[in-house]
Predict the structure.
Amino acid sequence: MTLHLHDAPTPSLVLDRAKLARNTAAMTAHVTGRGLRLRPHMKTAKSIDVARLALAGNFGGITVSTLTEAEYFAAHGITDLLYAVGIVPSKLDRVAALLRRGVACTLITDDPGVAATIAARGRALGVTFDTMIEIDVGEARGGVHPESDDLLAVGRALGAGGGARLAGVMGHAGNSYADRSIAAVAATAEAEGQFAVRAAERLRAAGMDCPVVSVGSTPTVLHGPVVPGVTELRCGVYMFGDLFQAAIGSCAVDDLAVSVLASVIGHRRGPDRVVIDAGALALSKDRSTAATEQDAGFGLVLMEDGSAPPVPLRVERTYQEHGVIEIADPALFARFAVGSKVRVLPNHVCLTAAMYDSYLVVDGGSQMIDTWGRCNGWGPAT
């Protein structure tokens, strides 16, 4: 086993366990200290080892974004799952297989017809699909408006004749990512909570149980008020952080737990560029920080041990397998000899991490302490 990052293949995904542990402990204390449940979202981490840290001190449930994640985490002993993507009927048999194994896998929908199909399929399979109604809390991506007729229609369809059960309402204020001040995030968070609580109140007034009111995004969970009636918060990127989250005030650059290890593969004198073997596939082409006051190009460059370079550097351009770092001072070329390694902090860690099957785990510095696997893809987990 490789024991030092200098000997590791590139590009690779590096995870600093110490920073991860600090981030997860801080969020757990923040949420549970407010009397709420934290259901960590594992769509970025996709790792049981990360999940165990995120669940420490929490009630034990997680959020997933694919059925592959649901199957993977269930196989590793996590049995309380919220599949937070609108279900389609063709996937219900996979969910039923989880239920028969004793896994509580809650679904979401915002469609009355799908809700009726969920109930009918549950009756046919002899299972009960716990299902939450997705509420549009401001992002306008998915979900029903809390004042809409569809809200009650979905609820009634889930409760008609068995096969399904209304588990609550959920929403996600992804629109908080467009906010550029803590005050704006707090306002978005308050609206998020109020929309979800209003939906729950309407369902209850119509005679339907609505035990769970679940909302969340990393910015709104960190900076928003506790809206009375909300029972559960969901977020995920807080575990790793990224440059965009740092730019909008959700974390500091020093909190970022994930970076991409890359090798210097060439120098271009004249334009004074260093070329690395991490390009668009290894880093992603996300340029979200360009919309902030902290434009990081395609990622900020660190030295192999995670320390800052003598002057701030960023990846200025990417090709499929190449990244280009511009260096204004030619004297710095000696610090980036061909074959040396650097680490790149990502703009959007969710997209960057998606290309990798595992993490090279360090505990500060560049000495490896472990390798942690990830689950990827959308097909049945193996």
Q: What stands out?
A: The longest strand covers residues 258-268. The first helix runs from residue 17 to 32. The chain has a mean pLDDT of 96. The chain has two domains: 5-12+251-373, 42-235.
